[in-house]
Amino acid sequence: MQLTPEQLVSEFHDAVMELYFARKRIAALEAENAELRARLEAAEKTGA
């Protein structure tokens, strides 16, 4: 399948946008994970 230059640019743009939003989601999940780990560690220290 041959793509025109415009289609290639569009496909590249779509891929870049997907990567951008995936990285934002990963950052949010990493922050949530860190918070949950801290809460778990605090709960374990208090014996809850």
Notable traits:
about 50 residues; coiled coil; mainly alpha; 1 helix
β-sheet strand percentage: under 5%
Instruction: Characterize the main sheet.
Output: none
Judged by helices, strands and strand pairing, the structural class is mainly alpha
Radius of gyration equals 20 Å
Helix content: over 70%
The whole-number mean of residue pLDDT values reads 96
Q: Topology of this structure?
A:
Layout: H1 5-46
Write structural notes for this entry:
The chain is an all-alpha fold and 48 residues long. Helices cover 88% and strands 0% of the residues. The protein has one helix at 5-46. It is rod-shaped and about 65 Å long. The termini are far apart.
What does this entry show, briefly?
By secondary structure, the protein is mainly alpha-helical. It contains one helix and no strands.
